[in-house]
Amino acid sequence: MNSRSTRDTIETERNAYNVAFCELGLAWYWDAQTYAELRAASQQSCHVRRYLESQQPHLLRAYDADFLVQAIEAKRMQFSRTLAS
Predict the structure, then answer these.
(1) What is the tally of helices (H) and strands (E) in the chain?
(2) pLDDT tens figures, 28-80
(3) Considering just the CA atoms, what is the radius of gyration of the chain in Å?
């Protein structure tokens, strides 16, 4: 994959997360820098968990981390499938 294609894929992933946050009523927005930092610090499957633990820990008092991660990932995947079709 060339660097432009990689950048486009990363940007699409970031936008899919932002759509998921919005659809779930979360007032979160990952700009390019935030997403790059999360990607650098964790494997893809851990992005949301890392963000929850470092930036939104108050939510973990009310919600199970696995529940939140799964809900966000499901919405992200739904949006990604819509884009692909």
Answers:
(1) 4, 0
(2) 999 999 999 898 877 655 889 989 999 999 999 999 999 999 999 999 999 98
(3) 13
Model-level pTM? 0.85
Read off the amino acid at residue 69: V
Q: Among 11, 10, 24, which Cα is nearest to 73's?
A: 24
Query: Is-contact 28 56, C-beta < 8 A?
Result: yes
Compute the residue count for the chain: 85
d(CA 67, CA 48): 11
Domains of the chain: 3-84 (1.10.150.240)
